[in-house]
Amino acid sequence: IENGIDHAAKRKRTKEKTEDRTKRPRTTTKEWTATPLNTADAKASKPQPSTVPTHITFGRFDFKTDDSVILESKKKKTKKFESKQKKLINTLKKVESEQNEIERLKEENPEEGKELLRAQKFKTALAKAKGEKVKDNVQLLRKSIKKQTQLRQRSAKKWKHNKSEEGKRQKEKQDKRNTNLQKRKDDKKAKIKKRLIKKGRMVNG
Fold it and tell me: Could you tell me which residue ranges the Ribosomal RNA-processing protein 14/surfeit locus protein 6 C-terminal domain spans (predicted)?
C-alpha cells in the first residue's frame, strides 16, 4: 500500500473490467443492419407508390386522305343507288308477273281471273290502310328506274371528272417537288464549286 492506495487491488479491478469487455458479445455490422426500425421509421422509409400513371393509353385517330374519303363516299353512293334500283327492278318484275297471270286467267278462266284480281285489290287496300307504300303502278316504277339510272350515270361522270382533276393536282404536286429537289442539288453543287474556287482548288470556267 502506497499513500493509502492498494495498487494490487486496483490492478485486479482493471483486469476484471478488461476481461468483462472482452467477454461481452460484439454487435456486427450485419446485426446492426438486420435490426428492425420502429414502426414510424419503417413507414417513413418505405417508398410510397407513385401517383404518376406509368401507362397512358391514347385514343386512336384515323386520319384519312382526301382520296380515301372521296372513294369511300363514292362506294356508299354507288351501293345506295344499286340497292334502290335493284329493289325497284324486282318490284316491277313482280307486278308485271302478277298482271300477266291475271290476264292469262281472264282468257282461260274469267271467273278465276276476276277472283284473283279482287284478292289483289283487297291486299293492296289493306296494305295502304296500314300505312304501307304500295308500288303497283308499272309506269311509275319504270319512270323511277329510269331516274335512278340517270342519277347513277351523272354521279359516275362527276366522280370520273373529280378523279381526273385529282390526278392532275397530284401530278403538278409531284412535278413541283421534283423541281425543288433538283434546285437544291444544283444550289449545293454551286456552293461547293464556289468554295473550291475561293480556295484555289478549282479554276472558274
Answer: 10-193
Count the Cβ atoms, other than its own, within 10 Å of residue 166.
13
| DSSP code per residue over 50-92 | P-S-S--PPPP-----HHHHHHHHHHHHHHHHHHHHHHHHHHH
Hey, where are the domains in the chain? Answer: 72-168
| The C-alpha cell that represents 172 in the structure block | 403538278
Give pLDDT tens digits for 45-101. Answer: 555 555 544 444 444 444 444 555 555 665 666 566 567 788 888 888 888 888 888
Cβ atoms of 116 and 102 closer than 8 Å: yes
| Structure confidence at residue 68 (pLDDT) | 57
Cell reading at 68: 380515301
**What is the distance between the alpha carbons of residues 93 and 112, in angstroms, rounded to a whole number?**
22
In which residue are the cell numbers 406509368 written? 54
**Neighbouring-strand partners of residue 5:** 2
With CA atoms as reference, report the closest residue to 114 among 125, 103, 128, 124: 103
Q: Are 137 and 148 in contact (CB under 8 A)?
A: no
C-beta of residue 74 within 8 angstroms of C-beta of residue 159 = yes
